[in-house]
Model the fold of this input.
Amino acid sequence: MNDVNDDSRIRRNPLGTPVVAMIGGGQLARMTHQSAVALGQTLRVLAADPQDPAAQVTPDAVIGAHDDPAAVRAAAEGADVMTFDHEHVPPEILLELEADGIAVRPRASALIHAQDKLVMRRALAEIGAPVPAFTGIDSLEDVRRFHAEQQGQIVLKSARGGYDGKGVWMPDSLEEAERIAAEQLEAGVPMMAEAKVPWTRELSAMVARSPFGQGAVWPVVETVQREGICAVAIAPATGLPDDLRSAVQATALKLAQHLDVTGVMAVELFEVIGTDGRPGVLVNELAMRPHNSGHWTMDGAMTSQFEQHLRAVLDYPLGSTVPVAPVTVMANVLGAPETPEMSMDERVHHLAARFPHAKVHLYGKSERPGRKIGHVNVLSDPGVDPDDADQVGAVRAVAELAAHWLSHGVWADGWDPHTGAAVADFHR
Done:
């Protein structure tokens, strides 16, 4: 582990296999490292702290800030390609690296669409992708005009920097909208507004694209958000009509090509009901990196999103995205309001005893309320019908029980490990 002023770092894998530099040392980089090990590659990470999840496990970590040009350059030097576990690197740093011949994937010109929601909305509208009505907010007059156009049903967003529900406001009145916008504009936060969408559920389409132009897409999944954080992902989305499923996948691949994305991209969508009574979709967000809604692929697909991201940025042939089970449910382990007295190791022990088929992925993070500290994947039996809500619900119940146990140290259904019986019903 090295700081940015230490030149003793080995720049190449001693076996001559690729070195990939990933900016960010969070859980996405940690799980990408696991795939790099399997492929014989080295993942170098730029981490803010030696205790960041990825810095704990990779022997090649640079400690520095993602907005420090010297730190980013130190991570990139000698690597075959540079990529990201978050979108927050300033574009000017990336443009300078590209000008010096460093392979940045996705390129700054593509990544800006994940960094700036207003740029993204405008680009999608230009190519005819389905998006909610939107506008840039430069003044309170913009707020008043859009509020009137949408009969008060608006969402305010910071155009840059928001994640996991942060930087998103749903004002109940024009006065509240004006107050929020005034505060943010005065603080120098670029703002936008969009129509509040009466969606029925949220979906995600994960795709990958290589510099060669090869594309791959996983099944469309349903995501369940709680307090702005993804809590559950169900793969595939239950009851999605085949024509809509195909259209969503085609749209995601088209976006990746149009925006010149290299690597993995998540297209988050709202499912809506059209005037004809049929379901349709609107694009909500883009993420040009591995994504929470793709964690199920670690156990539920032939190629995980993390391996695929490495394949894509290195221009390898992409892997198969075929599911290995009819249904996979991912449930996030979110820190409980109070950290249990029982150690995490003991909680994993008890979980393995009750649900030996549950696949646990922990991130090496300390526990605090609401923090993503891991996830659990549960695969269905081979005979489960992915469009049978009750059968899918049974798989989901196990995943959520497991995740809740790991975060709280309490079985939500009252399970007694001594008698092997539940004393209360578990409600999703």
